[in-house]
Amino acid sequence: MIQHMPATQTPLDVDTTTRLRAVIGRLSRRLRPTAAAVAAGLTPTKISILLSVAREGPIRLSDLASAEGVNPTQLSRTIAYLVDAGLFERAADEGDRRAAWVKPTPAGRRLADRIRRERTDALNLALQDLDPRERAQIIAALDGLEHLAEQLKGAQS
């Protein structure tokens, strides 16, 4: 669902919003592949699901599908892969046998932690090479970017 801007706010020009969208996409793609993820043979979807489940803890598959925006068939295949790889445990819901839960195994948690650490290290290295003013601009933009991410999350619900 797309929300419309209040009439009191001036929209950004198309070039600016296009640049913002493009740079967010490039950052995301460049942070995605890590040595740990590549070694584990994980696709971007598998990485995202692993990190979500490691962060959220035990989660119902229906809630995970909704949070990740993944169709049930793709999610089922991805979960089966992660279970077979020893990264997730899957269990039936006690109250509703049609539903299932997943949680990370200790190996899944370790891999998720390593992927996060590798991404953080890569970002820190790149930030070190920037001009101090550019780093300060990025830091100053964090609150606004976090709010933007929440706005987009709400628009997709």
Would you write up a description of this structure?
This protein is mainly alpha-helical. It has a single domain (about 35-155), classed as Winged helix-like DNA-binding domain superfamily/Winged helix DNA-binding domain (Arc Repressor Mutant, subunit A, Orthogonal Bundle), CATH 1.10.10.10. It has helices spanning about 15-30, 35-40, 45-55, 60-70, 70-85, 105-130, 130-155, and strands at about 60, 90, 100-105. The chain has a three-stranded antiparallel β-sheet with strand order 1-3-2. β2 (about 90) and β3 form a beta hairpin. α3 packs across α6 (about 105-130).
How do the strands and helices of this protein lay out in sequence?
Elements: H1 14-31, H2 35-39, H3 44-56, E1 59-60, H4 61-68, H5 72-84, E2 88-92, E3 100-104, H6 106-128, H7 132-156
Antiparallel strand pairs: 1-3, 2-3
